[in-house]
Amino acid sequence: MDAYSLRPDELGDLTIERLGPPTIDSPLIEKGVHFVDDDEKILVYSHSENIEACESSGKELPMFERAGPRRKIFFDSKELNCGIVTCGGLCPGLNDVIRTITLSLIWQYGVKKVIGFRYGYAGLSSKAPREPMLLTPEQVKDIHLRGGDILSSSRGPQDTDEMVDNLEKLGIGLLFVIGGDGTLRGACELTKAINMRESRISVVGIPKTIDNDICGTEQSFGFSTAVEAARAAVCGAHEEARGHWNGVGLVKLMGRDSGFIAAYATLANSDVNFCFIPEVPLVLDGKDGFLQRLEKRLDKKHHALIVVAEGVGQELVEKDGSREKDASGNIRYEDIGLFLKRRITEYFKEKKKPLALKYIDPSYMIRSLPADSNDSAFCLMLGRNAVHAGMTGRTDVVVGYWNQYFVHIPIAVTMLRRKRVDPEGDLWQTVLETTGQG
Ligand code: F6P
After folding, report:
1. Residue 257: inside a domain, yes or no?
2. CA of 215 to the centre of ligand 1 (A)
3. For a pLDDT cut of 70, what percent of the chain falls above it?
4. Model-level pTM?
């Protein structure tokens, strides 16, 4: 079992918390929907190594609850107000999720009022920069066709008690929180505060990260769009490199701690000669260092294509040890792309060899795009399953995707760590084979 998977000893109880027993017939019964039974479970492990490790430790095989509509629900939709909040960086598909949740609540379940909090958790605080927005079918009609986030977002936590006060004041029974690991940690705190007050408010999370780094879900929305757009940037860089003698195309892609976008964009393009991800140390100098290998490549082929994820080689870039943090508590990284550009240029200047280096950084352009078809369909299924989970009174839960099923994951599982590329795994090994970077 690799260090990047979920480990049986850390999984704990995968039962999902509920506000109370579901006693109300779902309005979906009339619509002839296929319901999921509460005892339908999805195995966490499918690899024999993991299964054997569980069996030999005498542990039961861990299973996630399957997501989907239930015959009995907890909330009476006629009396339910719902809220949606989006936090953290933009991500293709945010508007799709907002739209799907709104339409599913109103059209499928008959909920009368859905509101969107503005600017992330700040919109739930006592100093909300804007009043919440009423979300109606008319309001969300076309929002999936545009990028960005109609609710706007922000980073960082807010006072939990203030947020619960606000939810109670607005009579919200079900809150959907769309965000990354920091946001989901905030959602977990919110649930604890709600439970302390014995309030009847469910909190359902939808994992959002363009980096695809949320633990406990195989895929997160926006990732497919990001890889597709990244591929276009990599293709452009490739042409630039081929268009000049000793041309180098250098593309920096998002990926703070996890290099999934860089790795997949490299495979999708397969002309990339060097791909660098945060999970694998970057060795710049020395006999087998990157600069020497780049020189060899240029001597032979006279062009080269490089993809680097933003979180790579921060130990090389950091000058004075100052580690400023953003509002989410993430260390602000220095620009590894600009750093590489400078070091490559200096190296070839010293060697008195020609170089035509073009640096492309499409990061923010990529994450503000509308979702591609794959992501749109995925967002729709995620959003609907989040609504089904919430209507049954499940709380402290995230809707994820695992072994080809939508599942309910306790928020705590998503907080275990960030999901990262396994340097020994198939993905990275295929990148090494494709690039030949060794
Ligand atoms: O969390 C996703 C992400 O896209 C990271 O890859 C990146 O480091 C971060 O957001 C940057 O976001 P911002 O510039 O908005 O803080």
Report:
1. yes
2. 17
3. 98
4. 0.95
